[in-house]
Amino acid sequence: MRFTAILFFTLLAISNINCTAQSALTKQHAFNKRGIITGADQTEKYLPYLNGKRIGLVANQSSLIGKKNSVDSLLSLGVKIIKVFGPEHGFRGNASNGAVVGDEKDAKTGIPIISLYGKNQKPTAEQLADIDLMIFDIQDVGCRFYTNINTLEHVMQACAENNKELLILDRPNPNGYLLDGPVMTDDKFKSGIGIHHTPMAHGMTIGEFAQYLNGEGYLKQQCKITIIKIANYNHNMPYVLPIHPSPNLNTQQAVMLFPSLCMFEGTAINEGRGTYMPFTVLGAPALRGKYSFSYKPLSIPGMSETPNHKDSVCYGLDLRNYDVNNLRKSRQINLAWVIELYHAYPDKAHFFAEERASTGVSPFDLRIGTDQLRKQIIAGVPETEIRKSWEPGLQKFKAIRAKYLLYPD
User: Fold this and answer.
1) What is the residue-wise DSSP string for 242-306?
2) Which tens digits make up the pLDDT trace of 198-214?
3) DSSP secondary structure string, 332-347?
4) CB 318 within 8 A of CB 281
5) Other beta carbons within 10 Å of 2
6) Predicted model pTM
């Protein structure tokens, strides 16, 4: 009997240890399964702070809490949203690139929507007068020429001028691993598609970029910001966006190729606008006979009404199945494609778009942030030498960027 009792209690103890271990494993599995958690999804960290406040929300279709738009979610949680401010492409994300977006009322909620890509890019004092707290919740993709960071600066400036706090619900940068390209240093290359002295791909989240804007003197006076950080995140983590951040970044492949392919917008090459596969294909009619792959850009409302080479068959590169892990491994923008297509293009004098009379600057140079790359490609400078010329600027920027990081590289 004594032996049986000892055996029983021994087995019970082992069972309890196993249960405890299993419980720990279950909790660890649940944690791993949750993975990255956006700032917006951590409602417990900011909902109490919103209680009783009149809220202005900078948002678009990428602003999600769970699977619902953050406006709809916050309203259902009793948050008093007074106004919504929409960036390029509008609040619901259905306006074409560069299209002027007007003010309106949201058909679903009746809340006034103020466009920050129309008659004013910065909220006015009148628009902010009845707001106690502004929230910024927009998905970015980590490129100087993606205009959400311009909107961020304008909103921060308006908040600073009108003594309004800005709450930032941070989101992962799907290209957070990438810090590459020439640094824009000359203000003559500033435009609506680039106003910051960063590389083409800056490797920061919106929250980090906000700290950079405050710290590097982009604002006349500092903006009071509070950042709800992303949980379980570092810059090297792959992140698949749950929704398209804009009409022409309609696949994860396009999001990952965007830093490399957007530069083609300043050339004779169509980068897939006017198709349902934008930023995953490259081509032009003049490349017929040099490439077998072809497609025809068309006018697509809400995406690209007047794409380059509209209604003409384009020949070139199909990158829909390109392994984007190559970019992640190299941690570089792909320069080989623009060099290849320049040399393949029969009329090299017209490969790069002409300088605009109003600015005296080429659209290609505006995206790159300098005229040096265009001149290097024309002169036949090898890619390795081109990249070496970027290094002094990149190293200087890396040191600046390090001061504002919220997450490890």
Assistant:
1) SS-SBTTB-SHHHHHHHHHHGGGGGBSSB-STTSSSTTSEEEEGGGBTTBSEEE----BTTTBSS
2) 999 999 999 999 999 99
3) S---HHHHHHHHH-S-
4) yes
5) 6
6) 0.88
